[in-house]
Amino acid sequence: MIEDFLEHVLGGGTTEVEEAVRKAAAAEIMPRFRQLATHEIVEKNGPHDLVTVADRAAEAHLTASLTALLPGSVVVGEEAVHADPAVYDALRGDAPVWIVDPVDGTRQFVHGDPAFCTLVALARHGEVLASWTYAPALEQMAVAVRGRGATLNGESLRSGSPAPGEVLEVASSHPDYTTPEQKRALLGLVTDGVRPRPCGSAGLEYLAVARGTLAGVAFSWEYAWDHAAGLLLVAEAGGADTTVAGEPFRITGDNALPFTAARDAATAERIRTLLGGG
């Protein structure tokens, strides 16, 4: 069934999933961009972890539209898991799973910065099959399908490799979200030839890697809604990912952290080594 769905929905042009993502953003996110009232913004786990009425409304919109496209599928969304952590267990089940981050980069969204996006991925049995990264304020839609490549606004994406001797810019986890051990690991990036910086929207950082404008990312958390779409996008653009244990990142969890995704395998391995990978 899932293969038939992929053939039907991903058969070229503007797919049904793309349309669902665009409609959710048009209905629930963009009308609220730079229009939020104070009471429409809530701190979940501190001042850097925000949720807005747009996040919740967009996730509800996508949950209805995506499950209608693929009967029998389920949704693992950031806000649903925040309300009920047991929802996350669907990633290990048999049903096809839509992994949804309705507004990735909520902090940017709240501050009126256009660098936010909606992330959707379709997975089954822990394997990401397709993904959509949509930045509505930037008018960017990136799509990846396993084994079929990646595109941005319909144009093929290739990450390429850094030029010899190029300083590697690496977006990394915000210090507020790292353990002391992870902070020490990320300090490995402070070395000659590498320029680390705090990440913005994870989805847009992955897109930058896939476009070849960012060498890599180094992240210390593993929520699937932040990473599933971007990891497939990078892989289908020719990049690579690895945890510090030298293993591919698993969306189902239990990864050795931090992990990296980079423009090519050699860059991923260099970053892994700097993070303390043996």
Structural commentary:
The protein folds into 2 domains: 2-156, 2-Layer Sandwich (Fructose-1,6-Bisphosphatase, Chain A, domain 1), CATH 3.30.540; 168-274, D-Maltodextrin-Binding Protein, domain 2, CATH 3.40.190. By secondary structure, the protein is an alpha+beta fold. The strands form 3 sheets. Strands 3-4-5-6-7-8-9 form a 7-stranded mixed beta sheet, sandwiched between helices. A 5-stranded mixed beta sheet has the order 11-10-12-14-13, sandwiched between helices. The chain starts with a helix and ends with a helix. It is built from 9 helices and 14 strands. It has helices at 2-9, 16-29, 53-69, 78-83, 106-110, 180-186, 202-211, 224-236, 265-274; strands at residues 41-43, 50-52, 74-77, 97-104, 117-124, 127-135, 140-145, 149-152, 155-156, 168-172, 194-198, 216-219, 240-243, 259-262. The longest helix has 17 residues, at 53-69. Helix 2 runs antiparallel to helix 3 and helix 7 (202-211) packs parallel to helix 8. Pfam families: Inositol_P (PF00459). It comes from Streptomyces cinereoruber.
Give the key terms:
2 domains; 9 helices; alpha+beta; single chain; D-Maltodextrin-Binding Protein, domain 2; Fructose-1,6-Bisphosphatase, Chain A, domain 1
